[in-house]
């Protein structure tokens, strides 16, 4: 069918579909507006939560949309532990830690801190309720509403159908930069060496651990490899012998642990078929690993109680911002006048079969992330928080841990609320003033 007559048909039949050799055409249709607000946050992981809570603190009306039925992102649905980069963080991060501690759900684990993921869910929901954040679970942001180069809201799909949420400022905290990508922002993807993003891991939880509390991944690797050899090597360990896996991270109760051991390589996080295959493969790996763990005395009584609701994505889109944090910033330990987050975590790149060894343990000094890395270069009305902020593959491998990600979120939330109140675009907001406010709230820990 000629393009012109196809378009005419689509215009005349709102809401209908037409199948052609080129694909399925969807006619334009009116979307109901579910809600208007000051700040719309997409994604309720550590970054989105920091953003929603901080914006609400400033008096903004906040809507938080999340595709899963819980807050916390990788902390909860991903079963990720420990909480890296928790020390010396102020404001929302500090409040969350204080609440977890008060609930007996926070404990030192090998120089870092572990938490109870169930108490994490409840604690966060209490914080959201207290600040009157309007939370919508079971809702996925599937498109951006862009008018004259400015993001005005997002299209959200749920069992209620396809609806619009309009906002003065939108924050993309989806981890994958879904809203920014739909709005037409440029993004970077993968390693400059081989083009692949970091490998994925399905975390799993085990119970009835006796007397294991250590971080020696190479030691555990050797014990698992010996147990595997004893059985005639019926399968391969899904990672090389290096210091990023395997870990059994014991939880505050000590007899339960989150296991970071499964790995799949060269998987595209934006393709559901690849994600499905990766999830099935890693679930099989989890049960194979459990059978090996059971041969060690500390895990003889253990069993898997839960594989994570989602496979864990270490890396996905990195949206291009006004400033891109790069390996050179880490090497020089750079500070910025508009800094919103301090980072001291090293470059943690998991290499493995088919993925080039690159950057793990690269030289770095504690550095800062500037506000400009949260402001996308290509559109107005949008801020970035969490994994999808503007940075290169190496810097991302350092700032991606949860303490830093929540810190970028609280900065984005504060900025968005101020933009909404003062009718400013995020690019117009004075980053130096934002920095000063965050310093006042003890959010930055590097001296200058
Ligand atoms: C296997 C693994 C182990 C890790 N280990 C550690 C560790 O030990 N300690 C540590 O501190 N960090 C660890 N990390 C890193 C850390 O978990 C993540 O980098 C961090 O959670 C990123 O925070 P975020 O809020 O940007 O994204 P996420 O935690 O990924 O949260 C994103 C949220 O957005 C939601 N979402 C996504 N798309 C949409 C959409 N379109 N619409 C609505 N909602 C959407 C998701 O459901 C999710 O809730 C690990 C990561 C992985 C994958």
- Show unreliable segments: none
Radius of gyration computed on alpha carbons: 22 Å
List bound small molecules: flavin-adenine dinucleotide
Helix content: 25-40%
CA-CA gap between termini:
65 Å
Please supply descriptive tags for the structure shown above.
448 residues; 19 strands; single chain; 11 helices; 4-stranded antiparallel beta sheet; alpha+beta; 7-stranded mixed beta sheet; 3 domains
What does this structure look like?
The protein has 448 residues and is an alpha+beta fold. It folds into 3 domains: 3-30, no CATH class; 33-192 and 318-440, FAD/NAD(P)-binding domain (3-Layer(bba) Sandwich), CATH 3.50.50.60; 204-307, no CATH class. 30% of the residues lie in helices and 21% in strands. The protein has helices at 3-12, 46-57, 91-102, 117-130, 178-182, 217-230, 272-293, 327-332, 393-399, 402-422, 431-440, and strands at 17-20, 23-26, 32-42, 62-65, 106-109, 112-115, 134-136, 140-147, 150-158, 161-172, 187-188, 204-207, 247-250, 257-260, 303-307, 318-319, 339-343, 367-370, 382-384. Strands 3, 4, 7, 8, 9, 10 and 19 form a 7-stranded mixed sheet that branches. Strand 1 and strand 2 (23-26) form a beta hairpin. Helix 2 packs parallel to helix 10 (402-422). The longest helix is centred in the middle third of the chain and has 22 residues, at 272-293. The chain is globular, with a radius of gyration of 22 Å. The termini are far apart. The mean pLDDT is 95. The structure holds flavin-adenine dinucleotide. Flavin-adenine dinucleotide binds next to helix 2, strand 8 and helix 10.
């Amino acid at each position: 069918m000629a393009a012109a007559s196809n378009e005419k048909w689509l215009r005349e039949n709102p809401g209908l579909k037409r199948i052609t050799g080129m694909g399925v055409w969807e006619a334009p249709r009116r979307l109901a507006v579910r809600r208007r607000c000051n700040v719309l946050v997409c994604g309720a992981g550590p970054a989105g939560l920091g953003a929603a809570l901080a914006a609400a603190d400033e008096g903004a009306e906040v809507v938080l949309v999340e595709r899963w039925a819980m807050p916390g992102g990788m902390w909860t649905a991903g079963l990720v532990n420990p909480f890296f980069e928790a020390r010396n963080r102020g404001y929302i991060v500090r409040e969350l830690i204080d609440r977890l501690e008060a609930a007996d759900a926070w404990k030192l684990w090998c120089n870092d801190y572990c938490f109870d993921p169930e108490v994490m869910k409840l604690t966060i929901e209490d914080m959201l309720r207290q600040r009157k954040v309007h939370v919508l679970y079971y809702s996925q942001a599937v498109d951006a509403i862009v008018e004259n180069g400015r993001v005005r809201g997002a299209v959200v799909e749920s069992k209620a159908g396809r609806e619009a949420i309009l906002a003065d400022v939108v924050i993309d905290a989806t981890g994958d930069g879904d809203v920014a990508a739909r709005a037409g922002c440029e993004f970077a993807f993968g390693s400059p060496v081989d083009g692949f993003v970091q490998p994925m891991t399905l975390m799993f939880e085990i119970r009835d651990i006796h007397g294991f509390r250590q971080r020696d991944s190479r030691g555990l690797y050797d014990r698992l490899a010996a147990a595997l050899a004893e059985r005639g090597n019926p399968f391969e360990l899904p990672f090389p012998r290096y210091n990023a896996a395997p870990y059994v991270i014991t939880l505050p109760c000590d007899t339960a642990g989150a296991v970071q051991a499964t790995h799949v390589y060269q998987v595209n996080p934006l393709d559901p078929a690849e994600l499905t295959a990766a999830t099935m493969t890693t679930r099989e790996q989890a049960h194979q690993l459990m059978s090996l763990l059971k041969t060690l005395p500390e895990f003889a009584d253990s069993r898997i109680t839960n594989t994570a609701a989602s496979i864990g994505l270490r890396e996905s889109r990195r949206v291009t911002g006004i400033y891109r944090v790069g390996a050179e910033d880490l090497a020089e330990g750079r500070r910025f006048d508009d800094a919103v987050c301090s980072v001291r975590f090293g470059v943690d790149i998991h290499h493995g079969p088919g993925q080039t060894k690159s950057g793990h343990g690269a030289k770095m000094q504690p550095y800062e992330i500037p506000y400009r890395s949260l402001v996308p270069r290509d559109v107005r009305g949008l801020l970035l928080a969490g994994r999808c902020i503007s940075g290169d593959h190496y810097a991302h491998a350092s700032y991606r841990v949860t303490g830093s990600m929540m810190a970028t979120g609280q900065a984005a939330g504060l900025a968005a609320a101020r933009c909404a109140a003062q009718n400013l675009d995020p690019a117009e907001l004075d980053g130096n003033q934002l920095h000063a406010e965050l310093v006042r709230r003890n959010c930055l820990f590097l001296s200058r």
